[in-house]
């Protein structure tokens, strides 16, 4: 009798949880390939809040939602020390001088959607996401904060509205796995992407803790969040370039890929990405419970 069958006979609920904690084993080879030695040794902890595509976001007002998201981040940052912003992190900020916006790009959080939107707003274009990707390397391009002088950088950091988009760490990891190994021909063979998959970063490594973000969007509610943020930034009459609310595949992909992974490995993810769970209010346990209900 297998472990799952034995658990099902003893405790159906426990067996159900382990089934959710599955996925392709190669996913974890990808995750631990680069920085196994850097894995956090802190006890596994669960977060307190998981955004849901519909239910959770409809329970509170946008203002309350943002207050909660920013409070979680600021509370975490106050409890942990940080170094000065490095040039690498400064380079993660994309600039819209037209609307006075800084977008901190975090890979696999809907960054293509957000970057394409920012580009269209900045230059008055109507590119689809695919057209935006194909246009990279052309002119004009979105400027990074590093392209400005130090004084210009500091001025923008102090006066521009700063946008951050984050994602459930479990779902983000699956997205990265599918992106690099899921057969998307457009990216296969691109040297920068081959190198990047050897240096998969958690969200904590991507952002700078000392920058106060004016708005924290979640991939799970990205269409709604981007509309709210850019409306507050003064964007009008460009509804045609904003993303639309649509059925997301992230949760389903997450369930499918984790189906064969032992629970102890899921706990390793919790330890490894504990800062991401804590900073942005996600919960490993609640993520599983939400997947069970879909």
TrEMBL record:
It comes from the Eukaryota. Its EC number is 2.8.2.-. The chain crosses the membrane at residues 14-33. GO terms for biological process: carbohydrate biosynthetic process. This is Carbohydrate sulfotransferase. It is a single-pass type II membrane protein. One of its GO terms (molecular function) is sulfotransferase activity. Belongs to the sulfotransferase 2 family. It comes from Branchiostoma lanceolatum. One of its GO terms (cellular component) is Golgi membrane. Keywords: Carbohydrate metabolism, Glycoprotein, Golgi apparatus, Membrane, Signal-anchor, Transferase, Transmembrane, Transmembrane helix. Pfam families: Sulfotransfer_2. It is found in: Golgi apparatus membrane.
